[in-house]
C-alpha cells in the first residue's frame, strides 16, 4: 500500500526557500540574528534576574552609589557593572533602557510604515494632483535633516502638553517625532512601485470588474511592493533607535525617571571625566551592539532579496 505524502508545512517551505538558504550561508547574518535575539531576550527578561528595578525610586539607595564594576577594586556584588551616583545598578538600567529604546524603535517603524504605505499607494494609484501634493509634502520633509524635524516636533508637542503629562507622554512624543520624519522614504518607494503596477494587466482587469480601488491597492498592488519595504524597515529600525538615543542625549527624549539608552549616556556623560567611566561606556556599548546587529541583518536582507545577486 502506497503511503500518503506528508503535507508540507509552512516551516518546511521556509526551510526550503532561497531566503533561508541565503541566511544559513551568511555568517554575518547568523551572527547578527543571534546577537539581536540575545539583546532582545535579555532586555525583556530583565525583571526575572536583575538585582533592582531602576525605574522604582524605592529600590535605589545612596549607600550603593558610585560602585565600580565588580572586577575593579571597590566593586560590590550584585552590581556587576557598577552603579551610578543615585545607586542605580548599571546593568539593570541598561537592560531596562534597552527595552525602552527597542519599543520606541519598533513603534516608530510600524507607524511610519502605516503612514508611508497608505500615502504611497494613494499617490501612485491615483496620480495627478493628489500625487503631486503628497510627494511635494514629502520633498519638503526630505529637505530638512531628520534630527531637526524630530527636535522641532518634540519641542512643540512638549510645550503643548501639561507639565504633569510631559514625562508620561515622553515615549509617545518621541514616536510621533520619528514617524513624521521617517514615513517619506516608504511613501516614495511604494509610490514608484505602485505607478508601475497600476499599468499591468491584472490591475486593469480588476478595474474592469469594478473591484473597489481600496481592495485593488491593498489586496493586489501592495503585496508586490513589499520587498524593498522590508529592507528599508529593517535598516530604519536601527536608525529610529539612534534617533531616539540622540534626542534623549540632547535632553528632549526620555526622562531620567524612565531612562532609555540615550538618557543613560547623557546622565553618565556628566561624570565621564571624574573617573566614573562605566556609567557612560556600558550604555554606549549596548547601543552600538544593538544598532550594528540590526544593520547587519538589514544589509543581508537587502542582498538576499536582490534578484540581480542570485
UniProtKB/TrEMBL annotation:
Lineage, broadest ranks: Bacteria, Pseudomonadati, Pseudomonadota, Alphaproteobacteria, Rhodobacterales
Position of the signal peptide: none
All residue ranges annotated as the ABC transmembrane type-1 domain in the record: 98-298
InterPro entries listed in its UniProt record: BP-dependent_transpt_permease (IPR050366), MetI-like (IPR000515), MetI-like_sf (IPR035906), OppC_N (IPR025966)
Cell membrane in keyword set: yes
Cross-referenced PROSITE patterns: ABC_TM1
Topology in membrane: Multi-pass membrane protein
Pfam families to which the protein is assigned, alphabetical: BPD_transp_1, OppC_N
Organism from which the protein derives: Pseudotabrizicola alkalilacus
GO CC annotation terms, alphabetical: plasma membrane
One Gene Ontology biological process: transmembrane transport
Sequence intervals crossing the membrane: 28-50, 102-128, 140-157, 169-186, 229-256, 276-298
Name this polypeptide is given: ABC transporter permease
Similarity comment: Belongs to the binding-protein-dependent transport system permease family.
Assigned keywords, A-Z: Cell membrane, Membrane, Transmembrane, Transmembrane helix, Transport
Protein's cellular compartments: Cell membrane
